[in-house]
Structures are given as C-alpha cells and as structure tokens.
Amino acid sequence: MAPAPDYLRAMRHLLALLIVFPVAAFAADPIEGTWRTPADADGRAGLVRIVPCEGGFCGTVVADMTAGGDRVPSDLQGMTILQGVSRQDGIYGGGRVSNPATGRSYVARLILQGDRLDVGGCVMAICRSGGVWSRVD
Q1: Across the chain, how many H-helices and E-strands are there?
Q2: Can you name the CATH fold of 6-135?
C-alpha cells in the first residue's frame, strides 16, 4: 500500500488536534474585551475591560478618556463596575452593575449586538438602559 499523500496526513493531524484540543476551549466569549462607555456631561468616557471571573464576567475601569480620545488620570481607574455577570437566554445578567456617579448598584442586564453592548440595570422587574458601550478591542 502506498503512503498517504502529504495533504491527507496533514488533515489527519488537524483532526487529531481538534479532537484533543477542541476549538471552543480557546474561543473567548464575545463579551470579553475592552469597551468604551458613553461620554458624560463633560465629554469624558471610560474604558472598561471585561474578563472572566467568579464563574461569570467582571468589568473594571482601566482608563478615562477626554472627548478628544486622550487618556487621563481618574479616581475610577481600577474600580470594578460589573461583577458576576453570566450569559442567560441570549443576554448577560445575574450579576451586578454599579453606577460610579451615584455609587448605586443594580441587577445587571447586558445585551450584546455585534460591537455594541447595551448596559443596563434592573430594580425588581423594571430595567433601564444605562447606555450603549462600543467595543475598543
């Protein structure tokens, strides 16, 4: 029997790798990344990095930006404003979202639509959008 052509050997190796290391294990959740918040009354926006934590996702303020896009120092840097958020029926929720301006926190409700993330909070059964964040990376 003649040896298998090189492309067949390569396909077998690829198939073996996919069985041993499933692709899904390497794929990041679509919510992970850095997001830019809407600008406040002064034109400043925040950058929030969302990463896996606590069996869900957490978001931490990593920078503040001027209306011109320059990063500036801020007391909010390092503040965790999303905690314990998990994917539920096509939206993200179950955790808490904090409003740094008021210091209040709410049950989180995040709706991901491509590179836009509608971030809101709920009190009892009433939910309200806190603004739409844009993906930075």
Answers
A1: 1, 9
A2: Lipocalin (2.40.128)
